[in-house]
Amino acid sequence: MTTTAHGTDTLTRDALTVLQPGFTGTTAPDWLLRRLGEGLASVGLFGRNITSPEQLAALTAQLRAERDDVLVAIDEEGGDVTRLEVRTGSSFPGNHALGAVDDVTLTLEVAAELGRRLAACGVNLNWAPSADVNSNAANPVIGVRSFGADTTLVARHTAAYVTGLQSAGVAACTKHFPGHGDTAVDSHHALPRIDVDPGVLAERELAPFRAAIAAGTRAIMSAHILVPALDPDRPATLSRGILTTLLRGELGYRGLIVTDGMEMQAIAGTYGIERGSVLAVAAGADAICVGGGLADDETVRRLRDALVTAVRAGELPEERLADAAERVRALARWATTAAPEDGVGGRPDVGLVAARRALRLTGAEHFSPLTEAPYVVALTPVANFAVGDETPWGVAAELARRLPGTRTGSFAGEDAATSALAAAGERRIVAVVRDEHRHPWMTKALDTLLTARPETVVVEMGLPQAPPRGALHIATHGAARVCGRAAAEVITGDRDGGSGPE
Fold first, then answer.
1. What Å distances lie between residue 296 and 21, 35, 243, 277, CA to CA?
2. d(CA 120, CA 84)
């Protein structure tokens, strides 16, 4: 039976306060503004809500006109996962590129400049950084979103990122606790499982989260993963042993715990979003993230009523819900009063600087820059859900700015190479790949291309796990627009040509 909660009683307000919903459109709908007046304290933004920094600033101002302390959250990792620049590609390389450089000062500066841009648009909570140790190179959802496979490297860069982001007055939300790196399943589609013993978890997965907590991360996001060594029955998001006993107790974390998107199939397909939300709050979560897929008032009403009903039925302690709501309000108070530190975010070009430093070149000593327009063969895998397929990637656009007349095509599957060779004709080929090691068809296509055209330039924009080959091999450690620009500079020998404001 559904209980419809009316008015603004404390229980109803607390239930609304712990929700972080999304919506459609580039202006706030009436239902969302009404819910803010009733107690909703957070709003999540996605690429569909953003067309420009100016539009985003107007949107957040509209939200604050209704509630001046609203938490405005976004999934802005930089690199492959960008919402601020979803239609153009990011001006910042992602975590893996920063890990490849391994300069914690640079990571801090990148995070600070990204934070400055978010703050200027009115965003004060960023669902980043990813602190996952990418120990499984076949991981279909983390990959270049991780700083790397080395625990100590991931830990120091996670701490630097948290420090930089929060120095701009934007709360960091370190994710995906207790660590999503050693998975072979995308939790957007099913429930991943990590089968390692507690000692490995403590030394590998948990170390970056300890570093984030020590750096003062204001929020931590839970993962929809099953970790039998910690809880054999429930995924981390729904596990009291993981969220309360481990994160709150053993690690001493006092900030906000946010769930990953509850409409992801790891939860929605097993528990359902209403039951899942109740179990998450009971387990120790303080904020329910929903809105990447379900983004309407009905979803908010359903989750609000599920929480209210669970309290009234004795399934969810009222004090647990009240505690969760107070943690949300505490973060809102911090975000409202946090002032950017002096001098923070003072390098607008720091993303390009970082992307250039992240490049790893093989064969450069024998390579002569291209002077004629090439054909860019994009061997394109299916994008993972977190990245999405809205954001452009590759080097074709950047090469075309330097070598007008550059042509490109996207190819996939068993006949990719044959089709690409026919399309390229006599032009020099630049082959762009993404995680070649994960896609046998891509390896086969690249083998065929290089046999037929050994002068082909290869640009790997995913994890550089396959052996480097080609007349020149460029590993960018990510597919952000700025990574494509850095690669194009090398291919043409032109650092300044076709450049514009970054």
1. 8, 11, 28, 16
2. 12
C-alpha angle with apex 424: 423 to 429, nearest 5 degrees? Answer: 145
Task: Report the alpha-carbon distance of residue 207 to residue 442 in Å, rounded.
Answer: 35
Q: Which residues of 329-363 are buried (b: 16+ CB within 10 A; e: fewer)?
A: eebbebbeebebeeebbeeeebbbbbbbbbbeebe
- The four Cα atoms 343, 348, 350, 355 give a dihedral, to 10 degrees, of 160
Nearest CA among 255, 256, 273, 254 for reference residue 264: 273
Measured distance CA(238)–CA(227) in Å, rounded: 12
Catalytic residue annotation: 188, 260
Q: Mean pLDDT of all residues in the chain?
A: 92
Q: Where are the alpha helices (DSSP H) in 226-366?
A: 240, 265-268, 273-283, 297-312, 318-337, 350-358
Q: What is the pLDDT of residue 8?
A: 63
Q: Are strands 42-45 and 71-74 parallel, antiparallel or unpaired?
A: parallel
Place of tokens 């089968």: 195
Give pLDDT, residue 3.
Answer: 36
If DSSP codes are grouped into helix, strand and coil, which group holds residue 277? helix
Length of the chain: 502
Q: How many CB atoms are closer than 10 A to CB 448? A: 16
Rounded to whole angstroms, the Cα distance separating 379 from 386 reads 20
- Per 3-state DSSP, the chain is made up of helix, strand and coil in percentages (nearest 5) of 45, 10, 45
Positions in the chain whose pLDDT score sits under 70: 1-8, 184-190, 342-346, 383-389, 496-502
Establish whether the linkage from the previous residue to 340 is cis, with ω within 30° of 0: no
What is the pLDDT, as a whole number, of residue 187? 61
Measured between alpha carbons, how far apart are the two ends of the chain, in Å? 54
Q: Kindly state the tokens that stand for 272.
A: 């359902």
* Chain-centre distance for alpha carbon 429: 32
Integer-rounded Cα Rg, in Å, for the chain is 23
